[in-house]
Amino acid sequence: MEMEKVNIDGTNIAYTRRGHGAPLVLIHGYPLDHSIWDEVAPLLEPNFDLIIPDMRGFGDSDVMEADDSIVDYASDIARLLTHLRINKAYVAGHSMGGYVALAFARMYEARLSGLGMVSSQMAEDTQERKAGRYATAEQVMREGVQPVVDAMTTKLSADPAIQDFVREVISRQRPLGIASALRAMASRPNSSEIFAGFPFPVVIVHGDADMLIPVERGQEMKDALPSAHYVELPGVGHMSMMEDPRRVSEALHAFGMVKVKGVKLVNR
């Protein structure tokens, strides 16, 4: 995808825009970039105006010298939409991108048409997980990104072709961007208390073979918000948009059909 850049308060954010219809922002997960959406984007663009950014510190976007927070990533999305003169959009995030989408929902509810959580969760990290993220951030700053490549590649997907793809994507990321993202994820708040009250359409997609965020985390979100459109993908791991792009596209197309006010549409 051809990328453009916009300067947001001194940070150059790279993004691509394609398609026609309702605006839909697709936010990539850690430690990846916009290219994870390459398979699903052609299936969405006939009906959505897709805005697909590289989050700060990843891909072609700038790395900042100070640590970032999940709020910073969400603010970048809001300012990018303002730059594009888009007042309201659907926002869907994969993994860490889901954490950013939740922060966007918390901060900019009036600008949100609907929320998509793809292989993500509403809960905060355990203390053990937080400590692990901080330790990995320090290791990356000392040794570079190879420890993350080694640790993440096989956990992201069991598909050898996707493993080759993500290995290359992670390898080209910058240590500071990865370290900042790790610290941002460790310090993110628990969104469980707000999730059940979301007044906009919510789509949840989760693979039942996800080795990074267990499928139970997706089920917890569905239980918290019964009106959410929940799609569980059998045999699919963490990279659902690459492992089963058709089903992920179908799930996101459900934005226009999801009812609110407690109407339960999907049973698991």
Describe the protein.
The protein has helices spanning 41-44, 70-83, 96-107, 127-143, 146-156, 160-171, 175-186, 192-195, 215-224, 240-243, 245-253, and strands at residues 4-8, 11-19, 22-27, 48-53, 89-94, 112-118, 202-207, 229-233. It has 268 residues and is of the alpha/beta class. Helix 4 (127-143) runs antiparallel to helix 7 (175-186) and helix 5 (146-156) runs antiparallel to helix 6. The protein is built from eleven helices and eight strands. The chain has a single domain (4-124, 190-256), classed as 3-Layer(aba) Sandwich (Rossmann fold), CATH 3.40.50.1820. Strands 1-2-4-3-5-6-7-8 form an eight-stranded mixed sheet, with helices on both faces. The radius of gyration is 17 Å and the shape is globular. The chain starts with a strand and ends in a 15-residue tail after the last helix.
Features:
about 270 residues; alpha/beta; Rossmann fold; disordered C terminus
List the helices and strands and how they pair.
Layout: E1 4-8, E2 11-19, E3 22-27, H1 41-44, E4 48-53, H2 70-83, E5 89-94, H3 96-107, E6 112-118, H4 127-143, H5 146-156, H6 160-171, H7 175-186, H8 192-195, E7 202-207, H9 215-224, E8 229-233, H10 240-243, H11 245-253
Parallel strand pairs: 3-4, 3-5, 5-6, 6-7, 7-8
Antiparallel strand pairs: 1-2, 2-4
